[in-house]
Amino acid sequence: MSTGFQQLDGLLGPVLPLLSQKDVIEISVNPDGAGFVERFGSGKAREFALAGNVVQAIIQFCATAAGTTVTQGSPIFSGTIPGTRCRIEGLLRPVVAAPSMSIRRATESVKSIEDFTGTEDQRARLRAALRDRENIVISGGTGSGKTSFANALLKELGEIEPDSRIILIEDTAELRAPHENTTALLTSDQVDQRRLLVSTLRLAPDRIMLGECRDGAAALTLLKTWNTGHPGGITTVHANSAREAVSRLAALCSEVSLTDQTPMIRQTVGLIVQIERHSSAPAIVELHAPLERDSI
Fold first, then answer.
1. Does residue 110 contact residue 176 with C-beta atoms inside 8 Å?
2. What are phi and psi of 25, to 5 degrees?
3. At what angle do helices 120-131 and 146-160 cross, to 10 degrees?
């Protein structure tokens, strides 16, 4: 894989070929220069080394391409590797002893829901939720496959409603909607998820997809948006179980609201999908309907 930026290709060194290896999930370089690679089905292993000044140069190049800078006063960069869909999190001193980074490799193809281990009843329920415009929350731990599953649902939605207008809201571009009428919005240091959600209401959306619900203002705004005329959305949250996802959303909302939002969450969220990554493939562990409090 070439990034399309010759200077960056040279900087990436041993990282560059890893970006095109389909079994690679995550690439990390620690402050001591040790490079670890997580591969699908085989876990993490040390595979290379990269000097700190090179790691810093990579981070600064990616930041400049994104129209921002990393400095001692602003030592963290979250974005993508230019010319790719690979996500990079870069850290400089003083938050780390030496420059370090982690790269999440983007998959070339979008999986279908059949590619996730699960039952036919679960897949039928998911298709029904999409057809009936239920709001879907995908829950799981870091690296469990939540974004991959969100893309699988979008792919399925492309078959069910190909003419829908889809608005995607993310911190980094990872969601892929097959719909021709799609607008993707990205947060920045100046524009957060909540502000984009407010703007989205003026973009005539049929369905609103939030890549990851991670702060209280965005969570509460999204729930209100879904509950007042814009159903059929998808988002992801970090939680250890489908039922815990309700508590997680309520906790996020409590950051900006003194009122317990659990009743609205149960009323608004039609289906919670719990995803876990097993050694063979990401798996649908549980589907939970918060209002009916049933699971399959």
1. yes
2. -105, -50
3. 60
